[in-house]
Amino acid sequence: IFGHFSHRSEWQLVKIDFRSIFNRRCTEADYQTWHLHNQGEPCLMGVKRIYRKLKPTSRCVMGKTYSVTMTSAPCDCTEADFECDYGYERRTDGKCSPAFWFHPSSMSRSCTTGMTFLNSTGYRKVVSNNCTAGVIAEYTARRQHCPIQAPKGLHLVTSEGRLTATLGANVTFLVFLEEGDGARTSITVDFGDGHALTYSNVSSIEDGIKHIYKSIGIYRVTATGENSLGSETTMLFLHVTCQLEHIHLSAPFVAVRNKEVNLTAVLHPSQVGTVTYIWWIGNNSEQPVITLGGSVACTFSREGINTVTVQVSAGNTILQDRKTIAVHEYFRSHLLAFSSNLDEHNPDVAEWRLDVSRVIRSSLIQTQP
Question: What is the DSSP string of 297-358?
Fold first, then answer.
């Protein structure tokens, strides 16, 4: 025995000789068996463990070669050897029942007819538990054949997740099925433009379905899954557009106060798909007018120079044009004529017409009634 009498003292070593008490070697008669138990229960983690130890009255020396001897044997499984499986919880009566958020039928959602799956009983054996027989067959998950299910949870999306497409470009559609026998569920995709395709099962279109639209517009694309137990349909609305290249705001140069004026946005190309028009009329720039048509009518209540701006939004493209309108209380229009030989000196040249119109417009705006 070694130690010290106080924190400041040196270490002390005490040697005790027990040979006068333990003066013989132990024999078999000095040992007894001892059962490992938990409050009298001999089975721990499904195993009975029996140890050999010295009797309390034996005073003998075991020797350096002595080793602890233990024998074990498996126990029959009981309910105590099992815990609640995933999605189940213990009730007041001790039984494992499905939790409020768990649906046991969901375990076979990804199951394919002809295959098998483990159908839980609500219990699973505690990890490292070694019990056998007993109630093990009653509480262990059973392997069952996958049932045939009607299609449920059908989804239709584009590969990029967008609801717009460019005219003439490949569009890839993806079809997903949450529940049902995918191997025996046929899929029909109607592209909304008079074309449709049917596939024998969902797995055959894992890479998607490609389609090219040849006309702009809004198309209703539908997907239908069907097997012997039922069917389900889903859809999306795809906007097919083409690139907007140019816009021109057509508006009069001069308007009469409080008299209706028509404003028109001319597009090139003329058909580009779904278009939104945003108008800023006059000096009110904080409250634009939004329309789906390319024409609006407006009036100006004050004389002076007014600015009209239109923005056209088509797909990812936004273009803008602006015009100024001179508003007067009264003005008179005159029909201008040009000599017929202008085209002879400027054949097929449109620039001279634009130049002349700019000069005339500037002069008219500056002229007071």
Answer: EE---S-EEEEEEEEEEETTEEEEEEEEEEEES----------TTHHHHSTT--HHHHHHHH
